[in-house]
């Protein structure tokens, strides 16, 4: 019996990936919430008269920190969107299939980057 190459992951395997993605999604949303709260706090402190001590920080450093937090929040939002898209692919049966080669993406890669749409070979071939 020749072992034919799998073209899809089984329901059980997809379930495992769905749990992994949901876990990462929960953590990512919690981190985004903290980032947004921190950003909002740093915006509020400018008008708060009791924050005289924090005014010791230069405005430039304050602005740079806000920009940094904004970038982190944007990256985190993109990560969340990618994870949510991966959940959609699980539901419609296209999860784990490389968008370039059409072959299955290795489980190791999916465990490391569960929202990926490309096999490592496809990713590397694009970089060269």
- What is the total tally of β strands? 0
Rg calc: 21 Å
**Helix/sheet category:** mainly alpha
Query: Averaging pLDDT over every residue, what do you get?
Result: 86
Helix content: 55-70%
Report strand %. Answer: under 5%
Give the tally of structural domains: 2
Number of helices: 4
End-to-end Cα distance: 38 Å
The multimeric state of the shown protein is single chain
- Shape category: elongated
What's the order of the H and E elements? Answer: HHHH
Identify low-pLDDT runs. none
Description:
There is one protein chain. By secondary structure, the chain is mainly alpha-helical. The chain folds into 2 domains: 11-93; 96-128, no CATH class. Helices cover 65% and strands 0% of the residues. The protein contains 4 helices and no strands. Helix 1 (11-45) packs antiparallel against helix 2. The protein starts with 10 loop residues before the first helix and ends with a helix. The model has no long low-confidence stretch (mean pLDDT 86).
């Amino acid at each position: 019996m020749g072992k034919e190459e799998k073209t899809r992951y089984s329901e059980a395997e997809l379930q495992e990936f769905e749990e992994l993605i949901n876990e990462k999604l929960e953590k990512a949303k919690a981190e985004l919430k903290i980032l947004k709260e921190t950003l909002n706090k740093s915006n509020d402190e400018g008008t708060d008269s009791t924050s005289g001590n924090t005014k010791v920080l230069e405005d430039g450093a304050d602005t740079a920190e806000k920009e940094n937090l904004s970038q982190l929040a944007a990256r985190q939002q993109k990560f969340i969107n990618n994870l949510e898209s991966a959940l959609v692919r699980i539901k419609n049966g296209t999860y784990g299939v490389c968008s370039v080669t059409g072959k299955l993406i290795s489980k190791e890669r999916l465990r490391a980057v569960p929202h990926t749409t490309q096999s490592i070979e496809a990713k590397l071939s694009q970089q060269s």
